Amino acid sequence: MLDFKFLRICPAHMPSRAYTITVIGLLTACAAGPGVISSTPFSPLNSPLVVVGPSPDAIATQAATERNIIIKLTVLANEDATREARRLTPQPVVTPGPYPTLVFPPTSTPRARFDAAEHGGTPAGSGYITQLGDNSKSALIRNTWVEVSPDGLELTLVMAGGPHDYTTGTSGPYGFLLLYRSRIDSVTNEVVALQSRVEYRTPDETGILEVVGADGEVIELRSAGGKRYFFSVPERRWLLQGR
Question: Is 124 left (phi over 0), alpha (psi -120 to 50) or beta?
Answer without folding.
Answer: beta
